[in-house]
Structure formats: C-alpha cells, structure tokens
Amino acid sequence: MSQWDIDVYGVSLVLENLSGQLGLDGGGFSATIDSTAEGINSAMVSAKSSPVESALSDFLAYYHGETGTVFTRSLSCLKGANDATIAYNEGQEEMAATAQNQAGAAETTSTPALPPLPPMRASSERVRRIRAHRTPDRCQLEHVDPHQPRSYPLSPDRL
C-alpha cells in the first residue's frame, strides 16, 4: 500500500496557476521577459553612445541567460509534478517517484526551439558596438555585431 496521499484535483489547480504565471499561453513571466527586452532595446536606440549600447547589450545577454534558466527550471518542475501526479493517478507509484525526483532538473525538460531575440535596432548606421578590452599597456577595441541571434524563452507548447 502506498504512503502517498495526493489530491490530484488540488495539484491540477496549482499546475494550472503556475502555467498561467509562467505565461505558457501568453502573458505572465514570458510576457515580462519580452517587454523587458523591448525596453532595453529601446534604451539602446536612445542611448546613441557606443559604451552605453555595449553595456546594455551585455546586460540584455546576461538577463536572457538568467531568465531563461529560471523559466526552464520552472517548466521542468511543472512537467515533473504533472508527470508524477499522472503516474500516481494511474497507480504507477515507482514511475511517480522517478518523475518527482527528476522535477527541477532543467536538462530533463525538452522544450521546442525557442525564437531568437528580436533584432536590436541601432541608431543610423551604427550596426556594431564597441567593447573595450583593457590590457596592461593599452585599450584594445573589438567590433561586435549586436544582431547575432540569441535565444530566450517565450511560450513553449502547453504541457
């Protein structure tokens, strides 16, 4: 006999709520990621300064990396809890325990290919940003294309 006592209906309500907060059907955390990226992009256009554009571009890349990790981990937890509850409901307690143990591991979640960031708009013909690399005797400049594709989480298919 199982030691588990899962309220399947209660779990489904919690998962539905988390799904809405993540924005799997639009809105939520996914929309916040998009609007923040658009705001940073707008600030880059308005800056009209290579060092500021470079700093904002670096921040945007970091921001998407961090939020992507949070989004993927949350999605993994949602999928793991869903799989464990389904297995429990079907009487497969060993499968439920395995799904529960894997919940939260980002690598266990396979998400569809994520769309790239919208292209960064640069003022006029400013297509490159300048990143200064300091060396002991001089400052070396490197031209970097800000339009290189980066991916970030949007709305993966609903679980």
Task: Write up this protein.
This protein has 159 residues and is mainly alpha-helical. The protein has a domain at 8-16 and 29-110. Helices cover 53% and strands 8% of the residues. It is built from four helices and two strands. It has helices at residues 8-22, 28-47, 50-89, 93-102; strands at 129-134, 139-144. Strands 1-2 form a two-stranded antiparallel ribbon. Strand 1 and strand 2 form a beta hairpin. Helix 1 packs antiparallel against helix 3, helix 2 packs antiparallel against helix 3 (50-89) and helix 3 (50-89) runs antiparallel to helix 4 (93-102). The chain is elongated and about 60 Å long. The protein starts with 7 loop residues before the first helix and ends in a 15-residue tail after the last strand. The relative contact order is 0.18.
* Record field, number of beta strands: 2
The total of helices stands at 4
Basic shape: elongated
Radius of gyration: 21 Å
Mean pLDDT: 68
Binned strand content? 5-15%
